[in-house]
């Protein structure tokens, strides 16, 4: 069993990833930490509580960061044209959800949970990296106690999706992402290089609903707005960015990775760009030296990933 903290900003594709983690038999979902990104922290936290309640998820929700690691960064408008005004595809999420959050802020929840389960916790982070960076700043030793960190974000060998240089999660808080990448914990980055080719079609989503019951039906309702957005980007359906990161935890054999130090550009026209110095290539001495070698996914078995997502989402809930 993989003990997983899911760091998320729900978010339509976040919702699919959450249901995957909840349903997969090899995942023990021990915490959900919210972060601002696809919507405000108030909205993403409410959405996490809504999905927890709707899908009968036992894991606690801890409210996370509401501003960037560098608080002087200018605010960027919420992407309502992708995720809807309510962050979950305009399905009409109630304004308030009558269940409490964990009393700790997300970064403290992350620290406490890692320390209570040394060597066992995998963090799956599919939004801005702010909570992780704050946790590292407060308790750097957690880097030696975590099992793994799996990130959905970045783009290494193809253009970004919010600027030509940057992917949205990283662009939303580059300083936080850079702090996470250079920390001495094992990071695997699932970026646009492998998520963009991984498209769930309308027919596959319909098949999941037919087999998966009310939980899958809610997921499908949430996803329709997102699918409409993707009409201008893919032939049919939607890109399942965040679910790819979850699949990596249980089926890394469906991915091919490249090792090397990773840095994030902070400022300028390439703000938020992710760059890897491959271990296989040598360079003159520079600021890239003596950094931890992290993993970047450079290839994916998209059909295998989609098959596993579909099988897991359609499974009878435990």
Structure description:
This protein has 318 residues and is of the alpha/beta class. It has eleven helices and eleven strands. It has helices spanning 12-23, 41-54, 80-83, 106-116, 130-138, 168-171, 174-181, 192-195, 202-230, 241-250, 302-314, and strands at 2-8, 27-34, 61-62, 121-125, 148-152, 187-190, 199-200, 238-239, 255-264, 274-278, 294-300. It has a nine-stranded mixed beta sheet, with helices on both faces. It has a two-stranded antiparallel ribbon with strand order 7-8. α5 (130-138) packs across α7 and α9 packs across α11. The longest helix is centred in the last third of the chain and has 29 residues, at 202-230. The chain is globular. The mean pLDDT is 94.
Strand order of the largest sheet: 3-2-1-4-5-6-11-9-10
Low-confidence stretches: none
Structure summary, number of beta strands:
11
The main sheet comes to:
9 strands, mixed
Radius of gyration: 18 Å
Question: Topology, please?
Answer:
Layout: E1 2-8, H1 12-23, E2 27-34, H2 41-54, E3 61-62, H3 80-83, H4 106-116, E4 121-125, H5 130-138, E5 148-152, H6 168-171, H7 174-181, E6 187-190, H8 192-195, E7 199-200, H9 202-230, E8 238-239, H10 241-250, E9 255-264, E10 274-278, E11 294-300, H11 302-314
Parallel strand pairs: 1-2, 1-4, 2-3, 4-5, 5-6, 6-11
Antiparallel strand pairs: 7-8, 9-10, 9-11
List keywords for this structure.
9-stranded mixed sheet, 318 residues, two-stranded antiparallel ribbon, single chain, globular, alpha/beta, 18% strand
């Amino acid at each position: 069993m993989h003990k997983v903290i899911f760091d998320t900003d729900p978010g339509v594709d976040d919702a699919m990833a959450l249901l995957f983690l909840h349903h997969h038999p090899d995942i023990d979902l021990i915490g959900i930490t919210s972060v601002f990104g696809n919507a405000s922290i108030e909205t993403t936290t409410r959405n996490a509580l809504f999905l927890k309640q709707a899908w009968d998820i036992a894991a606690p929700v801890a409210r996370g960061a509401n501003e960037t690691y560098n608080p002087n960064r200018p605010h960027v408008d919420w992407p309502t044209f992708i995720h809807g005004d309510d962050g979950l595809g305009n399905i009409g999420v109630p304004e308030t959800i009558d269940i409490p959050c964990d009393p700790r802020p997300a970064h403290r929840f992350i620290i406490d949970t890692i320390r209570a389960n040394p060597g066992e916790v995998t963090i799956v982070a599919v939004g801005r990296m702010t909570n992780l960076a704050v946790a590292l700043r407060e308790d750097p030793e957690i880097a030696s106690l975590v099992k793994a960190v799996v990130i959905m974000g970045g783009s290494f060998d193809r253009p970004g999706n919010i600027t030509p240089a940057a992917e949205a999660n990283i662009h939303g808080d580059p300083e936080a992402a850079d702090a996470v990448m250079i920390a001495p914990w094992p990071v695997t980055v699932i970026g646009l290089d492998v998520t963009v080719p991984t498209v769930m079609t309308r027919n596959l989503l319909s098949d999941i609903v037919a087999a998966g019951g009310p939980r899958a039906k809610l997921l499908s309702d949430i996803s329709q707005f997102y699918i409409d957005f993707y009409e201008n980007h893919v032939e049919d359906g939607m890109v399942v960015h965040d679910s790819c990161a979850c699949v990596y935890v249980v089926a890394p054999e469906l991915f091919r990775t490249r090792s090397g130090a990773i840095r994030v550009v902070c400022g300028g026209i390439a703000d938020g760009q992710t760059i890897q110095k491959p271990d296989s290539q040598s360079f003159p001495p520079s600021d890239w030296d003596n950094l931890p070698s992290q993993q970047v996914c450079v290839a994916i078995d998209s059909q295998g990933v989609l098959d596993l997502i579909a099988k897991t989402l359609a499974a009878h809930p435990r």
